[in-house]
Specification:
There is one protein chain. The chain has 9 helices and 14 strands. By secondary structure, it is of the alpha/beta class. The protein folds into 2 domains: 110 residues, 3-Layer(aba) Sandwich (Rossmann fold), CATH 3.40.50.720; 152 residues, Rossmann fold (3-Layer(aba) Sandwich), CATH 3.40.50.261. The strands form 2 sheets. It has a 7-stranded mixed beta sheet, with helices on both faces. A 7-stranded mixed beta sheet has the order 9-8-11-10-12-13-14, with helices on both faces.
Length: 290
């Protein structure tokens, strides 16, 4: 069992022939990901990176049976790309694009929820199931197959956590980068639940940051679930000044519970093993699995 993507996933790339789409699709193909084609309006019938190009997602699905899409479409058109993928019956939509207008994302979010697709992102590094499928922009060589799941708001800290886990002679089942925007398709709680319910995942690393309530909601769900599967947590942004957006658009402290200190307290109260530095993640995972 794997979470979201695996070796059997049939993946299309929206924004396939653009510079970002070309570079990262090439990396995904090199990793062994089952990329079956891509979409660039007006370029249907061409071939790119040895894969067919289609004018629409519907054409791509009809021809290839694609069930997963990754989006490298410019911000102004990305919400339309999400809704187009939903319309075409794509089940997992992973959106890398950064800077999608919030009003556009509200519309796309509602649309995806209404039709029952799974949206990951936007402004995220993607999803990787090591040795099977890399659907995103993460460096594949960092990840090795194993039994530790990762859910993270931060792309860079996803790779850091994976590297530390691997250095402890452990490995990763699936790493999910949920993205750091104010409106995202898959929350920390939803990603945590998928990993907790995955039989191959024996421990989960949950990486959050200041701003919003996602980590507190996930921690409370974990406590209520009664799960005995250990979760190691880290919150980035402890020294960030209040009221200022830091890096991610969603990383802004709006209330007392949005601070790193408050989130860490709530996570500890809910039975999560909290570390104070990202440098401690690997050792803590090793300790809770021993």
């Amino acid at each position: 069992m794997s979470v979201l993507v695996n070796k059997d996933s049939k993946i299309i790339v929206q924004g396939f022939t653009g510079s970002e789409g070309t570079f990262h699709a090439g990396q995904m193909i090199e990793y062994g990901t089952n990329v079956v084609g891509g979409v660039t309006p007006g370029k249907g019938g061409q071939e790119h990176l040895g894969k067919p190009v289609f004018n629409t997602v519907a054409d791509a699905v009809a021809e290839t049976g694609a069930d997963t899409s990754i989006i490298f479409v410019p911000p102004a058109f990305a919400a339309d790309a999400i809704m187009e993928a939903t319309d075409a019956g794509i089940k997992v939509i992973i959106t890398i694009t950064e800077g999608i207008p919030v009003a556009d994302m509200i519309k796309a979010y509602d649309y995806v929820k209404r039709y029952g697709a799974r949206l990951v992102g936007p402004n995220c590094p993607g999803v990787i199931t090591p040795g099977e499928a890399k659907v995103g922009i993460m460096p594949g060589f960092v990840f090795k197959k194993g039994h530790v799941g990762i859910v993270s708001k931060s792309g860079t800290l996803t790779y850091e956590a994976a590297d530390q886990v691997v250095r402890q002679d452990l490995g990763i089942t699936t790493a999910i980068g949920i993205g750091g925007d104010p409106i995202i398709g898959t929350t920390t709680r939803e990603a945590l639940q998928m990993l907790i319910e995955d039989e191959e995942t024996h421990c989960v690393v949950m990486i959050g940051e200041i701003g919003g309530q996602l980590e507190a909601e996930a921690a409370r769900w974990y406590q209520e679930s009664g799960s005995k599967k250990p979760v190691v947590g880290f919150i980035a942004g402890e020294t960030a000044p209040a009221g200022r957006t830091m890096g991610h658009a969603g990383a802004i402290v709006g209330g007392a519970d949005d601070t790193a200190q408050a989130k860490k307290r709530i996570m500890k109260e809910c039975g999560i093993h909290v570390v104070d530095s990202p440098a401690e993640i690997g050792q803590k995972v090793k300790a809770v699995l021993s």
